[in-house]
Amino acid sequence: MSVPRTAPRLLAVLTALFIATSTVLGTAPLVHAVGPDQPVLTGSFQDALGCAGDWQPDCTASQLSEDPESGMFTATVDIPPGDHTYNVAIGGDRDENYGAGGVPGGEEISFSHDGGPVTFWYDSATHVVQSSAEGPFVTLPGSFNAALGCSEDWMPSCMRTWMQDADGDGVYTFSTEELPRGSYEVKAAHGGSWDESYGVDGAPDGDNHTFSTQEGDLVSFRYDPATHELSIEASDPLTAGSGTQRAHFVDESTIAWPADLVGDGPQTRWELFTAPEGGIGVEAGEVTGGQSLGELTLRESGLEERELTGRGHLTDFVALELPELDRAVLGEALRGELMLAQHGPGGVEALTGLQIAGVLDDLYAGDADEQQLGVHWDGTTPSIALWAPTAKDVTLRLHGPAEAAGDPSAEATEVSMQRGSGGVWTAQGTADWADQAYTFAVEVFVPELGEVVTNTVTDPYSVGLTLNSQHSVVLDLDDERWAPELWADTPAPAVGQFADQTIYELHLRDFSAGDEALPEQVRGSYAAIGHPDSTGSERLGELAEAGMTTVHLLPTFDIATIEEDRAAQQHPQIPQGAGPASTEQQEAVTAVADEDAYNWGYDPLHFLAPEGSYATDGHQIGGERTVEFRSMVGELHGMGLQVVLDQVYNHAAAHGQADGSVLDRIVPGYYHRLDLEGAVETSTCCSNLATENAMAEKLMVDATVLWAREYRVDGFRFDLMGHHSVENMTAVRAALDALTLEADGVDGTSIYLYGEGWDFGEVSGNARFTQAIQGQLGDTSIGTFNDRLRDAVHGGSPFDTDKRTAQGFGNGLATMPNGFSEVSEEEELTDLRHRTDLIRVGMAGNLADFELLGSSGETVRGDELDYNGVPAGYATRPEETVNYVDAHDNEALYDMNVWKLPQDAPMDVRVRMNTLSLATVTLGQSPSFWAGGTDLMRSKSLDRDSYNSGDHFNTIDWTEQTNGFGSGLPPEEKNEEAWGLMGPMLEDPAKTPSPEDISLSSDVALDLLRLRSSSPLMTLGDAALIRQKVSFPNAGREATPGLLVMRVDDTTGEDIDPALDGLVTVFNASDETITEAIDGMVGLEHELHEVQAGGADDVVKEATWDTATGTATVPAHTVAVFVAPQTRDDEKPDGGDDEEAPGDVEEPGDGEEPGDGQEPGDAEDPSGDVHAGAGPGTDGDGEPAADGAGDAPTADSDSASSPTSSAPPAESSRGPLARTGSEVLPWALALMLLLGTGIALIARARRG
User: Fold this and answer.
1) For a Cys-Cys bond, which of 130, 444, 675, 917 suits 810, CB 3.0-4.6 Å?
2) Domain coverage including residue 385
């Protein structure tokens, strides 16, 4: 049979489509021209990249692209397994090519590879090329990176400091002549990140290397990867110590001198110099430009214990004693330049500046601490005080009525301030100063500039401000104009004990920016809370009625990074119709991210005044914003909710002479924590504050007290609290405890304090003082966030890129495997049982001395359970831990479970596991903490750090119509590394809840609150009672996976709940109904709690209790609370002979045999606030990329001496044809389908 004429045409079409598709797949050669200076990888792998063959110098598939950061050329391409050779050709032919060591026409470079992406870098100056398959890329992150053209200092990803092994001897070298005169610090880093770095003596994450150089001189670096030792040689180094502040003026008679600078000879001597205007230097071995204050003597016994208080990092320094100086002479010297010289046989051996915080405290803080700073009033007459002990002169500048104040540098009425005791400058005012704008002109020597300047600054104690904080305002907070009636007349609701705290975390813009029921001018403002049209306020009322006690507000003090002029705020233009995994939304948000109205606000500018961007138009200046803030507090109190403010005293927005710097422009070198060289530490993210210094602590205490007394705030959360000392926190506690209703309008003893107790940064390990961290706040009742319970519920670490690989109790670990685990089923089961123990201890107040039957089969204390190498239980009182499973930092709970639950988990399971996770927090004995909207399954479209992600990714939909999932790929800055994994999840419609799903989650969350508030047994509030009454039956080595049983027995000891004999809470995190006899419960009558029996969840109503056998039946993915009605008829405090005394522990369990101990879980940083990391680099709240931890080292989360940096070169730099399997597969399937269809059509044509 002849072939119809249509068949050849069809074949031709299919052939053309095949060729076109093959080109996309990389099986046909590219025809684009290579530029004349374009470097191209040529080698044995080019054919696999889609080139016409190997060793093709004109193939664009292997061309290298210029990196704008460094000027180097790079590409990441998929290389097949095997042994390979290559070199670099220039301009599309082999006339110019470079091999090993950058030699023209040199030997080909070889490497072996297992297959997959390989990154190449080429230096067009040296012609050296290297691949990641040959060994690590080594760079030099340090304090000089920006001087070499990197976008910032401490940047391991910047290839401008790429160390190369040109001669192949195994030693990497780098040299430069581009550094300015000065002293610098540096580390060696592998792979373009802080994951692997080496300091002094080759120590991993060790101390920074230091060096100095004259401007333009040659500095050479050599690094041996075998020993990890870095050597540095400067051709003309500065005198040791030059350009730094390595000496520490500890008190008026003692200076600490670094031991490594001490000379060997007996002729070594030290001399202190001063120069009122600066200019001290060294010429021909002699000090010039300064006046000697005398020689110092070496104290053989070293620094005394009192001298090391708050300065533990100086332990190894030597002690030098000053000659006896008149205090006036010393005070005058401190107002100019101070330098300490070390003389040796050949002249000056070292010359360095001094860190002066210690001596300023010794001379001035005692008197200054007793004085009121800022504006204070005697009737209607104000006076203004500023602490500036090193200032030469201070002038008060009055700018007229605050609402009309112009540029701070414009002409103003000047009032000379008088220097008094304690270094405090004061100006006595008149009644007409009220509501005027003012600034200070401070004449002061600035060490970093080496000269005297006059700084125009606002008052660090400002209680009122003009728009964008251009001026302070002479504001009387006692003026009746600023006391709204609702606030003045509405008392704060009482919370019985700190353990009862049930906290709801909110950002003001998240709360109302998207509420279309509100007038536009009210959205995102203080005035939105309590507004009659506010849907969010309606929800707050429901939460309060159900048992929520407290609203925690993210920073509302004056913030440096938000435009306050609403007319000047930019608004992202979100494209309509952009897909759920599109990049367009984040592009629009990022384009205006620093000019819009949104930021979390962890960038403090003034600590005692409200933020102006949250006030409505016309109410942003002076007392007007105070009125709106106080009205908000009154509205929340009226709803029955206490108010907690998020405080950030660990850092300021800026330091030195930079815009946004206040404190450092008044007393240079005092308020900020300095490293050993005198540079400001930035481990928190930003400009660390030194609250170990007396006047910095005073600012912290005074500000906290002001918010409590003048705004009637009920509690405080401390960002990165571990960067404060225990002494700081107890000082705050004591000052608040002194407040009384009669004298101050507030009972300070009722104010709850908690914060991020992460341990990282330059203070880590109590390096300078005893830190306010987990386990070191015993018996203070100050809470720390409990990352143990959080991570046990989630699994893995908040900082995992592919979070699917590690599940937790709350998302299917060992009970609903998601298919991405990297360990065996047995290891997963062991991990689950250990994590369940962590939850048990967490729900029992995370007490160090609480005992339970552990997964090892042995009875263990809370502090004997392991959490990543540290004790899990650490509290002495239940309120000393705050239990949470999500917060503003890191992913929302719903998003975390999108990652970790099986990808095909149905929505009803997602709803139930959201509730079950929240129940671990809500039904425990410690304060409970929910992120705003988590009860509505709020999503941020998988954003891991939404600090600057705008309203689009952060807003909460209180109407329960949407939860925010699928709002586009989250912003690139913090999420790009995981975009490839996020995209398919965001595009899956099955992961977007319906309004009905959200409504069910909302209603069941309210039931959790009702359960918590239904009985005093839920929050006993006392460690002895918890040890006596709380137990965890059915635990141990053979515990049923996914089952957690918590019993509170009110038949032992004091009768706490006259209506109940106890309660049993049963968690079933598995995907099967569990029926199990509960240890020790035979014959004990229980019934499902009435809240659940009549509640919103129909599934939990299927839970049953069999009294005869003490057996509970609980459906999958469910938490059920069973209660035992009161039967005891005695009220004896001792409970009778058969009852345990307080502190005794009932033997748990069913007689399991002792077994092996549980291995630690995943090694991870403790912080949820990010602030952990190796140094700068911010997560927005400084939570090194943890408060964090939040926190902290998240909290930040982090802790080397050098700042966190950007990641190494990302996958996105691969060549255009270097596609991964997931990218190629759709094309391959399409091609197969196309060819199959064609063959079928041809066959049909033949039959026809």
Assistant:
1) 917
2) 363-476
